[in-house]
Amino acid sequence: MISAVSPVRPNPVRRLPGMRDFDAGSFRHKQEVERRLVNFIGRFGYSTLEVPVLETTELFLRKSGGDLASQMYSFVDPGSNSVSLRPEFTSAIMRHYLETHGDGEEPPLVRWQYCGPVFRYDTGSAANTGQFTQIGAELVGSNSILADAELLTLAAGIPAQLGIPDYRVRLADLDVLDSVLDTVGLSDRAREFIVANMNRIGEGSNSLASTLKRAAELHVVSGIGLPEDEKHLAVAVDGLPDGLARSVLAGFMRWNTSPDMPLGRRSPDEIVDRLLRKLRGGDASDAVERGLALAGQLAGIKGDPAHALPQAQSIVAAAGADTQAIDRLMDLTALISDDPAVSGRLEIDFSLARGIAYYNGIIFDIVRGATAVPLGGGGRYDALARALGGASPVPALGFACTLEALLVAMPSADKPHPDPDAVLVSPGGDDSNAAALRAAADIRDQGGVAVLDVGGNGTHTVCGRTVTV
Amino acid sequence: MRLVIPSDGELGEPTMRFLASCGVKVNRPNSRRYTGSIPSLPGIDVLFQRTADITTKVEEGSAEMGITGLDRLMEYRHDDDSVVPVMEDLGFGGCDYVLAVPDSWLDVTSIDDLADLALEFHERGRQLRIATKYPRLLGRYLFERGINHFTLVPASGTLEAAPIAGYADLIADLSATGTTLRENRLKTLDGGTILTSQACLIANPSALAGCPSDLELARSFTEMLEAHLRADPYYRITANVQGRSAEDVSAMILARPEIAGIQGPTVARVFSVEEEDWYAVSLLIRKNRLLDAVTHLRECGGVDIAAAQLSYLFKGESQAFAGFMDHIASLNGREAHHA
């Protein structure tokens, strides 16, 4: 016989990783900062828009190009919909814009601000996991340079308002990168690959070689990276017109497979099409290499606009590229250079470029300190409306800051102290309970704060004075 | 201390055999009873559970230790390290968790192709559907490789049929030999192995840290398993060799150091009735060097050469358990840091 299994004491229920409780003091501080910033953004004419915490997963996937997919709190709701807690606001705001302003109509100008919780789960980093508060603004319906200038000064004004001493605004422009890549003549696919790898390319010439190798693995470069038996196929269809090449491959496929073979949900034609694209596809290796080299030159430019922009200008000129984008970027930086929140804090850094298809124009982030701790960021995303199913592109730009990061960066905040106006109403004995209740009610009727002493520890610490009834 | 092991399924019988071979045989009064004991280690209660539930049982503290598949541990454990592997490879229950696509997909041979295909599907407003038993492991694996557009179809049982039935495009499944995949006209991908799995020993560090007597039982149990696995690649060889002295005999044997035992041979005088110059030699030899070693001993004049399976090989301490104790220490450090 063995002994009976001993009963299990239930484990204590704990907070989820990355979730925070704000106690009275830290909550009041957070709320106050929030109010100041909402008020500040409001002074630019931005009105508050509230959107749901829960949306379809697809909405966020379209916005991020999938980059956020691994970090979302996604689940299937009781109605079998794939839904996610929002990891950011912009896509929901754009969805709202498209729902309220129908197709065909001239896109109206709106200025919206928002503030609320967002949720991200980063398996690699406890610090980036959990619930955060984002505060931000979106300017939809204008492609004017003045709109870019307004949004940049507004975004830079956030850390300035809070007295954060060591913040910087790092700025890049995707149109400038595009203008340079235009001179090479690359496919969309190769171009997307280059933009997606800008931060890697910016690290120097070694990374250029490894990026080119990665391009081959992903079949962005033609002919390279094919397995041995596919090289033979590539030779077999070399020089054939597409239609004939398809027939050859379809024949090859019939020869190698049988009709009862599983296909998943793909048709034989789809398989042949992709096989042909893989064999043929990809850009010429020297074109990709030249594109990477040009992007690498741009990615290497870092520093204050007065020095960095002339360098970028000479790269654009040397490549024989259209100068409209670089001219606009120089005009923009000149326009905002005297703004008190921007002055002396603006840096050009082309390695910031992100590989999300519908971003265009300016892209920026706000960081602080030598290690560039992120506070927020933003940019222009005229093509997002299309990605979300809109009829045409809508010029739009926006930014968001993480409130928790701002709170940490603020100069040592006022310590929360007791509310000096709150009165602790304390019954003198058991027979004065009724009187104490009445006294507290009277104080509240007159607009005061009355806290009833119900025993327990520590009640008095929140009150400025005590009345014994 | 409570140890939870698989009651049935692919790991059920092999676990019982493995524990018996380690000298910690489990007594189960009959197959309908869900408790048992280990006579050689009194104080350990054995619980039998479905393999799929074992990680959770250890995590929630209904048992302090358990044996399960590494695949199941990785799929079901929480991120908070409330259950950790003590020994990741018990040497049985091996299988790979792999992605497999239809043979007819001539254009798809690697994980990079799959990434490209997922994008192509997405651009056409469709989602690649992948049927799998372990959505969490698979999701992470795909995300880490930049594959973000897919739908996972949770399924158990005969996944291989999904691409034929058309409810999924491809599958991720456990495969020990690949035969079932091939018979269903599916192929694996270059870089498409999500996890190489086998049976592992797991424990709940905070539950064990709170009870010194349980911790001691856990150490003894771990040590039996570890010493047995460590002994497995070796034979003990003994032989009688004639020579002038013990030094002389050992010098002959040591002429080939790679088959002269882990530390070198043990040589001892044989007190023979007829002749006086016989010595007994004893060596630990890797199993794949057995015939080399026998030949070498013969060349040294050895006779009566015997080779025996080694049951245990103990080191100064249990390495697996030392690693686990480090983990407990770091756990305490973390709590102290929070406090």
Main interface by residue count: A-B, 35 and 46 residues
* Helix count from the secondary structure assignment of chain B: 12
Reading the helices and strands of chain B in chain order gives EHEEHEHEEHEHEHEHEEHHEHEEHEH
Q: Helix proportion of residues of chain A, in percent?
A: 40-55%
Helix content of chain B: 25-40%
Beta-strand residue fraction of chain A: 15-25%
Characterize the overall form of chain A. globular
At CATH level 3, the topology of the domain at 20-166 and 369-417 in chain A is BirA Bifunctional Protein, domain 2
Into how many domains do the coordinates of chain B divide?
Answer: 3
* CATH topology tier name of the largest domain in chain B: D-Maltodextrin-Binding Protein, domain 2
Low-confidence stretches of chain B: none
Do you know the CATH architecture of the domain at 20-166 and 369-417 in chain A? 2-Layer Sandwich
Work out the radius of gyration of chain B: 26 Å
Give a quick account of the main beta sheet of chain A: strands, pairing sense, barrel closure.
9 strands, mixed
State the name of the first-level CATH class of the domain at 20-166 and 369-417 in chain A. Alpha Beta
Report the portion of residues of chain B in β strands. Answer: 25-35%
Arrangement of strands in the largest sheet of chain B: 2-3-1-4-11-5
Give the terminus-to-terminus CA distance of chain A: 68 Å
Word description of this protein:
The complex is a heterodimer of chains A (469) and B (339). With 469 residues, chain A is of the alpha/beta class. Among the domains of chain A are: 20-166 and 369-417, Bira Bifunctional Protein, Domain 2 (BirA Bifunctional Protein, domain 2), CATH 3.30.930.10; 223-280; 419-468, no CATH class. Helix content of chain A is 41%, strand content 19%. Chain A has helices at residues 24-42, 57-64, 90-100, 145-161, 174-182, 188-196, 198-201, 205-217, 228-237, 242-256, 268-280, 285-299, 305-318, 324-336, 384-387, 403-409, 433-445; strands spanning 47-48, 54-56, 74-76, 82-85, 110-120, 130-140, 167-173, 302-303, 346-349, 360-368, 373-380, 396-402, 419-426, 449-452, 463-468. Chain A has a nine-stranded mixed sheet with strand order 1-5-6-12-11-10-7-9-8, sandwiched between helices. A three-stranded antiparallel sheet of chain A has the order 2-4-3. Chain A is globular, with a radius of gyration of 29 Å. The relative contact order of chain A is 0.14. The model of chain A has no long low-confidence stretch (mean pLDDT 86). In chain B, strand 13 (266-269) and strand 14 (278-286) form a beta hairpin. The longest helix of chain B is centred in the middle third of the chain and has 20 residues, at 212-231. Chain B contains twelve helices and 15 strands. In chain B, 36% of the residues lie in helices and 27% in strands. Chain B is of the alpha/beta class and 339 residues long. Chain B has a six-stranded mixed sheet with strand order 2-3-1-4-11-5, with helices on both faces. Chain B is globular and about 90 Å long. Chain B has helices at residues 12-21, 51-60, 70-76, 111-123, 135-144, 162-165, 179-183, 205-209, 212-231, 246-254, 290-299, 319-338, and strands at 2-6, 35-37, 45-49, 65-69, 84-87, 95-102, 128-132, 150-154, 170-175, 186-197, 199-203, 234-242, 266-269, 278-286, 302-309. Chain B folds into three domains: 2-92 and 198-230 and 318-334, Periplasmic binding protein-like II (D-Maltodextrin-Binding Protein, domain 2, 3-Layer(aba) Sandwich), CATH 3.40.190; 95-196, 3-Layer(aba) Sandwich (D-Maltodextrin-Binding Protein, domain 2), CATH 3.40.190.10; 234-309, Alpha-Beta Plaits (2-Layer Sandwich). The chains are: A alpha/beta (469), B alpha/beta (339).
